[in-house]
Design a protein that fits this description.
Layout lengths: L7 H8 L6 E5 L5 H8 L5 E6 L2 H13 L6 E5 L14 E7 L1 H10 L9 E6 L4 H9 L2 E11 L2 E10 L6 H6 L1 H6 L2 H21 L6 H22 L1
Bound molecules: S-adenosylmethionine.
Length: 232
């Protein structure tokens, strides 16, 4: 992968960035995503934010190598601290991290989101944390995608400002993904459900403490909730 040819996963994230927007890509190891979007002419200005020195330096090098220093500013910063009010950022991408980390970056940077119209997230695991953050903070889901690359399944959740109500099942599996019910979606929830069943079976002989009973109950509830999707 490089900024001329993105991975399938990052290309899908890029497809949700709208033409002519000003982007902040947070956790921008190598700055592949902003470099690609500027190169193809979809955007003309971006911030690449990185908290770790090594990836930050890779991002700087890559932006220089591509001759894009006029268009892309690379900043070493924690989360949304990379965004300055004068940047006029209206789109944020956060990809390739766990859902809880993405949600915590959004929570901690709430004051940086006033001018932002669209957030494109790609959680590697626990996407539900992002849906929970969204409904608690005045954002709604406007699109979702599920895809597979190198045997790994990834979800993309696109948020815009607004209110929406979601059922427990929609919060867990995603309202748009549930509606679409693609083969990859079924495969993902089969995998998750089988893992929950495996853990539940291993807990059957683990004794009868309050915690173990609670854990069993939670697993049974999740298996039942998602089971409906897999059988219909
Ligand atoms: N976004 C790229 C992608 O999807 O291919 C890189 C993903 S990489 C696995 C995650 C990157 O996020 C790492 O470079 C890590 O240093 C960075 N990161 C993690 N927490 C961060 C934070 N709080 N603020 C900025 N960057 C962060």
């Amino acid at each position: 992968m490089n900024s001329e040819k993105l991975s399938i996963r990052l290309a899908a994230v890029a497809s949700f960035v709208e033409q002519g927007t000003t982007l902040a890509d947070i956790g921008s190891d190598h700055a592949y995503l902003p470099c690609y979007l500027v190169k193809v002419g979809k955007i003309s200005k971006a911030i690449a934010g990185e908290v770790v020195k090594g990836p930050y330096e890779s991002a700087i090098k890559n932006v220089q190598k591509k001759g894009l220093t006029e268009s892309i500013t690379v900043r070493m910063a924690n989360g949304l601290d990379a965004i300055h009010a004068s940047d006029g950022v209206d789109t944020v991408t956060i990809a390739g991290m766990g859902g809880p980390l993405i949600a915590s970056i959004l929570r901690d940077g709430a004051d940086k989101l006033h001018s932002v119209k669209r957030i494109v997230t790609q959680p590697n695991i626990h996407a539900m944390s992002i849906r929970e953050w969204a409904v608690q903070n005045g954002w709604k889901i406007v699109d979702e995608q599920i895809l597979k690359e190198d045997h790994k399944i990834y979800e993309i959740i696109v948020l815009e400002k607004g209110q929406a109500d979601y059922s427990e099942l929609e919060m867990t599996v995603g309202p748009y993904l549930l509606e679409e019910k693609s083969e990859i979606f079924i495969e993902k929830w089969m995998r998750e459900s089988n893992e929950w069943k495996r853990v539940l079976a291993s807990l059957e002989t683990a004794g009868d403490t309050v915690e173990i009973n609670e854990k069993r109950e939670q697993l049974r509830e999740k298996i039942e909730l998602v089971g409906g999707v897999l059988t219909n």
